[in-house]
Amino acid sequence: MRGAYSGAGHNSVDLFDGIRFHRVVDFSDFIFLDSDGADEVPVDTFGGLVAFDCYQCGHPVICSSAENERGHDEEHPSACKGCGTPYYLDVRYHNQKMYIHTPWRDPDDPNAF
User: Fold this and answer.
1) What is the C-alpha to C-alpha distance for residues 87 and 72, in angstroms, rounded to an integer?
2) Hey, CA dihedral for 109, 111, 112, 113, is it positive or negative?
3) Which residues, in sequence order, are CB contacts of 107 under 8 Å at separation 6+?
4) Model-level pTM greater than 0.85?
5) Helix (H) or strand (E) holding 15
6) Which residues contact 16 (CB under 8 A, 6 or more apart)?
7) Neighbours of 72 (CB within 10 A)
8) How far is CA 92 from its chain centroid?
9) pLDDT value at position 27?
């Protein structure tokens, strides 16, 4: 089977005439931090999935590191099922850190999420 890392994204590989397959990345050795990078966040990982407790209500949240999946980036957030707070991952492969962000919202706007 011929295939090579395409360099187009850390989560996918080009195989056979541009057909893209998602690569599963093991995040078990990564450090998981909150948006500020100040606090380590306890997580459970399985392949490219990351599970953690919502910062607001404590409900479990699952984000995916796969491109265009829930939680991959700010345009595709994963929402907490308890309170609706959106989360997305910011993976830093070069130093094995992952930041779990929630987009900024106006604290005076009750309909922000």
Assistant:
1) 9
2) positive
3) none
4) no
5) strand 12-15
6) 2, 3
7) 20
8) 11
9) 79
